[in-house]
Amino acid sequence: MNFVWKYQREIIVLVCLIIAYFILRLPNLTLQPIFADEAIYIRWAQVMRSEPTLRFLPQTDGKTPLFMWSLIPLFKFIHDPLLAGRFLSVLSGFFTLLGVFFLSRKVFNAKAALWASLVYVITPYTVFFDRMALVDSMLSAFTVWVVYFAVWLLKSLRLDLAMILGYMLGGAILTKTPGMLNLLILPVSILGFKKAGAGKYRLVKLVAFWGVAVVIALVMYNLLRLGPEFRQLSARNADYVFSPVELVGRPLDPFIPHFHDISDWFPKLLTWPIIGLMVYGLWFMVKEKNKLGWVILAWAIIPLLVEMTFLRTFTARYLLPSIPLLLILAGFGMEKISRVIPLIILLILVVFLPLKFDYQLLTNPPPDSLPNEERKGYFEDWTAGFGLKDIAGFLKEKRKEGKVIVGTEGSFGTLPDGLWIYLDKDDIAIIGGSATISAQIRDTARENATYFVGNKKNLKLVIQKAELVREYPKARPLDGSEQDAMVLYKVFP
Fold it and tell me: Which of 112, 179, 315, 384 fits as disulfide partner to 108, beta carbons 3.0 to 4.6 Å?
């Protein structure tokens, strides 16, 4: 009880921030259409749940399975598979929030920790991706806690901390292979090392504890060798990155375009006031010679620079693990600037733009300030699965009248996986992989009720002998191009 009374104000504010976190994450969690990768991950989890021999199924596409393993138990309590997947990301984001608070408190102070937590709760970047069934939120959570225990280990050389750090490192790798970057960055935390007493012996002890942590992480990673497609983890990842040999003679080729992407994403998904607070916090960190602050900055910037230099494809969610660490600096800057600017004015300046984005996301997505490329991927293009739950419900009703066959435009991703997740236990055959109504699908229409699901823009010139049953418009493109829609056709012989 003494602990509660001693920190009662801090606990009350933190609880209020936690409540605000869930208020901005849980409402209308399935309002946004399912995204291609969400459909894939959820479908994998369903298959892994039903067939124990396929517990390493994500390896076939070069992915690690921890997110899917974690999703399987939620299916027992949450009927809607998309809701289950997105709720898992909400929980991951909650652990990230706790990590932001405790890491900020350890490196700076309690006020900075509360400010950083507030910024994390409202920032569009985190709100948007914490509400999607993607592995990046879980990787972000592990990364923040990796940094926390790495910093704690610098201050207190203990074997138990090294072991926990190893588990966090291993969890990050099992979530997504870029989590391996944490192993490479770990030695950089030497920036925060302070000599005390027998300095050289403390350094030797620190390196030994790092070795313990790395060994634990690598043992966890090598558990994936139990899966038959372990080799695909490295083979498929090569498809997403440039090798150093490919960049000879053009080292800035991917870097500069990716920098332009970031210059578009950050002002819209972080907002200018929060970016300003980051810069202000960084300036004070340098001024106060806070070595542990440099550890946080290095852990945020190094992965970002590596991804800008080597990634072939670049999207905002790939940077998500760096964002909470940058927001910690913003929280520190907010704590400093709150001493010279009245609290109410500071809050209005900081929260207005983020909350406007968050309100639109929760009530009428997509938000106006969502970057154009993100808007296309999540709301406009073939990757956005509008109406799939409703289409699945329609097909279930038709199944009561007799056998139902449905063809889909795609074979992996939004279609057919986005449809499969709702028909997982229903006796409805899905035939995927055709850009139009194939002869196989047409033949089934002679004896069974047959339907076809696809994207209107791709199908409008090739659909024959079919009746449009339902149409679900996607977001209207801002560039004035043709608006797409998810369509359901009844197929005739």
Answer: 112
